[in-house]
């Protein structure tokens, strides 16, 4: 079931990632760095608002609905979400008491994005927890395609960065409508006991969610503050490229494995839980490592082909460092931090996230002031590495997660083969463009696939031979 669910979730994340990658390519050609910088700042504000007000609902649902398949938390979660929206609308305008220079247009757009994006995300957590990957995939794809369609329309109408923000919110609204219309099962009524259960677990995680959101946004905001919106736009594109591919694909692994881990934990089956965790880490590295190698080593071809002229030089210089930083962050967020949720130790997650935020802000101000945009990339790399080390140390006091070196060696060897193939291909092609990017990408991808098959990484050879054996046994015309 894990492999089947993983393949569905992989499609659910890869297709939106591909659409998002197309969107970045289009947006960087249609907007100036300053206009794109408005969008980057607005999305950052929406992320902060979402973490402050809605993260506790999402994190609670992802745990308790997965562990209690027979209990329906949707009615309680909807009431909690409605109350939270009321609090958000009542308190966010207070920001004008402290910063009268904040754009009303930008703040309202960010609030709209925060509400719509988190509403669809909460609905998706229920789909994951109830092990309904097909509905999850449909909603995810509709949301992504709608957002890009609305975004291109907003640019055509001349709305710039604000138009992109509105488009993201409208795309999320399309996902919400599909979720509500497509689910014909009855929704249970609000239960006070459920609400208290979600609040006890989730509210302490608000600090963790806020720290993560501030950390994810502060780099762009600090760059905008110190270097201007043009620099923020360039840094935002360079940071978004690894996120569009690496984080999206890592999310597909988490979507398939984490609910099953919680389910086995609720059944008090420690051996199955350990095996699920081991499979999760192996799958995580199998799908993320080749993308990281491709982005880091084919940087010139990726940036020179897929982003606008005004962004290319900066993105090409920053991308390798940011890819390595994102790799550390993925290992932390999608594997090590599961330990704190398994042990129901939300304050550990909050402490680790808050420490990471403090380190990030300190390093960003110091290195951006001294080294400009490259200093921002170095600060991100150092922060992610420190955050991963701190999480591993704390993990041993929560619920230790396994690291099976023998199962990860094949991933490392396959990645090394891919790196060599990309470097060889780069030496044979000149310049950038679609043909150069295709040649380098095919060389690396085929080398990785061949090495992974020969080494039977994640049982890929066993599963493929089993599939072929079953296919060959089918009678003609069946």
Describe this structure in words.
This protein has helices at residues 2-30, 33-53, 55-67, 74-91, 95-98, 104-129, 133-156, 160-182, 192-227, 229-266, 270-297, 299-306, 309-336, 338-342, 346-395, 405-428, 434-454, 460-473. With 478 residues, the protein is mainly alpha-helical. Helix 2 crosses helix 8, helix 3 runs parallel beside helix 10 (229-266) and helix 16 runs antiparallel to helix 17 (434-454). The two termini are 24 Å apart.
What is this structure, in a nutshell?
It contains 18 helices and no strands. It starts with a helix and ends in a 5-residue tail after the last helix.
> How would you classify the quaternary structure?
single chain
Distance between the termini: 24 Å
Helix vs. strand class: mainly alpha
Let me know the number of strands: 0
**What share of residues is helical?**
over 70%
Number of domains: 1
What is the residue-averaged pLDDT? Answer: 84
Q: What series of H and E elements makes up the topology?
A: HHHHHHHHHHHHHHHHHH
The largest sheet is: none
Overall outline: globular
> Radius of gyration over alpha carbons?
22 Å
**Share of β-strand residues:** under 5%
Which stretches are low in confidence, meaning pLDDT under 50 for 5 or more residues running?
none
| Helix segment tally | 18
């Amino acid at each position: 079931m894990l492999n089947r669910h993983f393949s569905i979730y992989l499609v659910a994340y890869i297709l939106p990632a591909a659409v998002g990658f197309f969107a970045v390519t289009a947006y960087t050609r249609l907007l100036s760095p300053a206009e794109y910088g408005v969008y980057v700042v607005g999305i950052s504000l929406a992320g902060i608002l979402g973490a402050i007000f809605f993260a506790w609902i999402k994190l609670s649902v992802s745990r308790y609905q997965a562990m209690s398949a027979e209990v329906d938390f949707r009615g309680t979660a909807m009431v909690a979400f409605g109350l939270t929206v009321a609090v958000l609308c009542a308190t966010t305008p207070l920001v004008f008491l402290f910063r009268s220079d904040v754009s009303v247009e930008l703040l309202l757009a960010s609030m709209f994005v925060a509400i719509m994006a988190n509403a669809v995300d909460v609905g998706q957590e229920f789909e994951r927890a109830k092990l309904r990957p097909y509905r999850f995939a449909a909603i995810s794809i509709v949301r992504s395609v709608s957002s890009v369609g609305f975004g291109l329309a907003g640019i055509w109408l001349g709305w710039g960065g604000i138009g992109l923000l509105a488009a993201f919110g409208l795309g999320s609204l399309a996902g919400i409508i599909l979720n509500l219309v497509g689910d014909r099962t009855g929704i249970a009524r609000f239960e006070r006991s459920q609400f208290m259960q979600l609040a006890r677990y989730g509210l302490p995680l608000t600090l963790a969610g806020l720290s993560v959101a501030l950390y994810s946004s502060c780099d762009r905001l600090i760059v905008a503050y110190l270097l201007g919106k043009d620099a923020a736009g360039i840094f935002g594109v360079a940071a978004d490229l690894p996120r569009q591919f690496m984080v999206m694909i890592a999310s597909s692994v988490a979507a398939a494995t984490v609910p099953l881990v919680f389910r086995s934990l609720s059944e008090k089956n420690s051996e199955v839980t350990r095996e699920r965790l081991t499979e999760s880490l192996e799958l995580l590295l199998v799908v993320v490592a080749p993308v990281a190698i491709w982005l880091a080593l084919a940087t010139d071809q990726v940036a020179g082909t897929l982003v606008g002229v005004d962004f290319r030089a900066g993105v090409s210089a920053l991308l390798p460092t940011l890819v390595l930083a994102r790799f550390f962050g993925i290992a932390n967020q999608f594997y090590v931090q599961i330990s704190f949720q398994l042990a129901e130790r939300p304050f550990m997650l909050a402490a680790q996230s808050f420490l990471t935020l403090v380190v990030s802000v300190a390093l960003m101000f110091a290195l951006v002031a001294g080294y400009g945009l490259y200093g921002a990339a170095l600060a991100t790399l150092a922060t992610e590495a420190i955050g991963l080390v701190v999480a591993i140390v704390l993990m041993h006091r929560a619920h230790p997660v396994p690291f099976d070196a023998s199962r990860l060696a094949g991933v490392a060897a396959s990645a090394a083969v891919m790196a060599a193939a990309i470097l060889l291909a780069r030496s044979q092609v000149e310049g950038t463009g679609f043909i150069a990017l295709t040649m380098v990408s095919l060389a690396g991808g085929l080398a990785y696939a061949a090495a992974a098959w020969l080494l039977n990484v994640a049982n890929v050879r066993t599963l493929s031979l089993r599939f072929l054996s079953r296919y060959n046994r089918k009678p003609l015309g069946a």
